[in-house]
Amino acid sequence: MRKRLAALLSILVAVVLTLAACSGGGSKSEDGGKGGVKSEKSENILNLASTSDIPTMDSSLATDQVSFFTFNQTLEGLYVLDKDDKPVPGVAKEDPKKSEDGKTWTIKLRDNAKWSNGDPVTAHDFVYAWQRTVDPDTAAEYAYMFENIENAKDITAGKKKPEELGVKAVDDQTLEIKLVKDVPWMQSLFAFGSFMPQNEKFVEKQGKKFGTTADATLSNGPFQLEQWKTEDNWKLVPNKEYWDKDKVKLKEVNYKVVKETQTALNMYQTGKLDSVALDPQNVNKYKDKKDFSTELNSSNYFFRINSTKNKDLKNEDLRKAFAKSIDKDEYVKSLLNNGSTVSDKLMVKDFVKDEDGKD
Q1: What is the CA radius of gyration of the chain?
Q2: What is the separation, in whole angstroms, between the first and last Cα of the chain?
C-alpha cells in the first residue's frame, strides 16, 4: 500500500531501531525470551504498542504524532504520499488542473469514495472541514497551515468569515481552491492530517464528542476505529466502504498503550507484540538479532534556552557559545545511539517566554 504521511517539514533524519517478528498475529516466543520472536502462523493480525493514547480523532484539533499516525490509517485526503514521498491521488482521482497563474486549482474527486457509514465523500466534506479548522471558534492550533489558501489568514485573525475561505464545491465531485501563491509543496501538504475531509452531518450530530470515542469517529481511509478504551488500547479494522479496499490485507491492528519501553520489549519477547522500538541502551544488545531492523524517520531535535530566567542568556553570542560547546557528534553517538545525524547548521534564536513560561 502507498506510504502515508506521518509528518511534514523536518530537518534531521533519525533512525527508529526496532525488533519485528517475521509475521503478525498468533506469535509465540521460541527462544526463551532472548529477543527473537518467531511467529508460528500469521492471522493477518498486527499487535503494536504506543507510548501514549490518541489525544483526539478530530483532524481540526490534532497536533500530535499519535493522532496524525492514526489519521494516516483511518482517513484519506485529496492526496497521499507514495514510497518516494511524492503526492499521488487519494480521494482526488487526478492531479490538480491549474489556472495560468497557478493560483486556482480545480480538483476532480473519485465518485466511489465513501465514509465508513456509507455516505459518499464529496467536495463539500473538504469545504466544511477546512472552514471549520480556520474558524477562530474552533481554536485549531494548526490553522496557520492553511494560510496559503485565500483569506485564511484574515479568517483566523477574525477579520473575515470562515465562508470566505478560498475553497468551494463546484459540485459533489469538483473542488476549487484559490491560493495566495503557487508553491511546489502545496499538493503534498494536502496529504497532511489537518487537511482531511469531515462529514458535516456526522460532526454536527456528535458535537463536542466528535473524535473522542470510536462511535464518535468516522473513517474514509483503509481502516476504521472499531474500539477505543482510553489510556488502554484501540483497534483498527478494515473499512469495508473504502474505495481501494482490495489493497487492505490486514484483518485487524491492535494498539496497546505501553508507556515504558522496557515493558513493551518484554511484551515483544513473550509474543504479545509484533514489533517494538528500542531504547538506546538496548541497541547494542539486540543489533545482531535477525529480527532487528532500522527505519528512517524525519525529526528535528533541539535545545530551547529560556532567556527570561537568566538575563545573560538574552545575549545571542552567549547562546551561540553554549551551542558550540555541545559535542553534537558524541551526543547522537552515545546518548541517542539510533543512527541520527548531526545538523551542521547553527540555529540560535531568542525564544522569549512570558512569566508562565509560554512562548
Answers
A1: 23
A2: 40
In degrees and rounded to multiples of 5, residue 311 shows phi and psi of -60, -25
Q: pLDDT digits over 296-354, tens only?
A: 777 677 777 788 888 888 898 998 888 888 888 888 888 877 777 887 654 444 444 44
Q: Which domains does the chain have, with CATH numbers?
A: 12-48+258-299 (no CATH), 75-212 (3.90.76.10), 301-359 (no CATH)
Query: What average pLDDT is seen over the chain?
Result: 85
Other beta carbons within 10 Å of 295: 13
Q: Can you list the alpha helix ranges (DSSP code H) found in the chain?
A: 65-74, 123-134, 152-156, 186-189, 200-206, 261-269, 280-286, 316-325, 328-330
Nearest-angstrom CA–CA distance, 212 and 287: 39
Choose between 200 and 340: higher pLDDT. Answer: 200
Whole-number pLDDT of residue 17: 57
Q: Which residues contact 220 (CB under 8 A, 6 or more apart)?
A: 75, 76, 91, 113, 114, 115, 116, 121, 197, 239, 241, 242
Contact by Cβ (8 Å): 35, 290: no
CA separation, residue 295 to residues 18, 42, 329 (Å): 8, 23, 20
Evaluate if residue 282 carries a pLDDT over 80.
yes
pLDDT (tens digit per residue) in 214-237: 999 999 999 999 999 999 999 999
Amino acid type, 142: Y
Q: Given a cut of 90, is residue 278 above it in pLDDT?
A: no
Q: Which of 275, 212, 342, 339 is nearest to 37 (CA)?
A: 275
User: Which residues in the chain belong to E strands, given as ranges?
Assistant: 12-20, 27-29, 37-39, 45-50, 79-81, 87-89, 97-98, 104-108, 167-171, 174-178, 223-229, 233-238, 252-257, 275-277, 292-299
